[in-house]
Amino acid sequence: MNTKLETQPLSLAQYQKLALSTRAPTNSLLEDAIHAGYGMITETAEIMDNYKKHIYYKKPLDMVNLVEELGDLLWYVALGAYSLGLTLQVPEEKKNDFPKGLSLSNHAAIGQILCKLIGSSTEFYTVCILSDEDYKEDYLDYEISRLVRNIDIMAKVCNTDIIKIATMNIEKLRKRYPEGFSENNALVRNTTNELSHIVEETQTLP
After folding, report:
1. How many Cα atoms occupy the beta-carbon half-sphere of 41 within 13 Å?
2. What share of the chain is helix, strand, coil (3-state, %, to 5)?
3. How far apart are CA 45 and CA 24, in angstroms?
4. What is the tens place of the pLDDT at every residue in 68-122?
């Protein structure tokens, strides 16, 4: 990942291109799709775990982790979109996308968004893992757009947006993979360095 970030915000199409330069090599688009499905589920589960600890164990909501995991989830959505031949784009905002009273402290409303994220992730993974090369069903396009839309909603609840989430994710990946993807760097990480810019950014959020 030697291309420097633009000074203006990334577009999601630019983000996708940069993100995919760090993907693990596979033998087929179907393998990419399955990899994406695994990642979508696990990253959504990380976000849910943050909320579980906040609600039931009374831990403060970890904003750094929340922003980081939204970026990681977006990375897997970018991979899933690539496996379908799709280019990511900022979703069209619809009024009924936002549950009533949506805020970080409204756990029922946040739960609705998390249900949509885990539902789309699970559907994508299920179709791909049980399929063969003929996995490119039209409704998977819908699940990708639904995931992007709900990541954008979660970003806005965090007083940021999906483009900033994408930009922070690319900066993290740049630190992890200065020369592109490697198995060693995927496993051995300096998380303090990787997350330093996210820590700084979340401190400025309202």
Report:
1. 11
2. 65, 0, 35
3. 21
4. 999 999 999 999 999 999 999 987 777 677 778 888 889 999 999 999 999 999 9
What predicted TM-score, i.e. pTM, was given to this entire model? 0.87
Going by C-beta distance under 8 Å and a sequence separation of 6 or more, which residues neighbour residue 18?
1, 3, 10, 170, 173
Element (H, E) at 82: helix 63-83
Which H or E element spans position 74?
A: helix 63-83
197: three-class secondary structure by DSSP: helix
Q: DSSP letters along 6-68, please?
A: PSSPPPHHHHHHHHHTTPPP-SSHHHHHHHHHHHHHHHHHHHHHHHHHHHHS-PPP-HHHHHH
Give CA–CA dist 152/166, Å, rounded. 10
- Which among 121, 97, 102 is positioned nearest to 43, based on CA atoms? 121
CA–CA distance, 66 with 76 (Å, rounded to integer)? 16
* CA atoms within a 13 Å half-sphere pointing along the CA-CB vector of 61: 16
- Rounded CA-CA distance 144/140 in Å is 6
